[in-house]
Amino acid sequence: MNFIAFLIIGALAGWIAGNIMKGKGFGLLGNMLVGIVGAFVGGFLFGLLGLASFGFIGSLVTATVGAIVLIYVVSLIKKS
Length: 80
What we know:
Layout: H1 2-20, H2 27-49, H3 55-79
Helix pairs in contact: 1-2, 1-3, 2-3
C-alpha cells in the first residue's frame, strides 16, 4: 500500500511542479514521471538540509520540491 501511495503522491507532485514551472514541463504524463523521480530527489535534498516531513502534506511538499528541482535541471541540460 505504501508503494501505491508513493506513486500517487509523486504523480500529484509532478503535476503541481509542471504547473509551477510553466513552459518547462514535459506534458501531463511526463510531469507525473518526473514527480515520481522528484520524490526521491526531494527526499535526498531534504535529508541533506536536515529537514523532515511528515504525513501526506509533508510528503507532497517534499516530492513537489524535488520535482521542481528536477524539471529545472533537466531544462538546463536540454538547453545546452
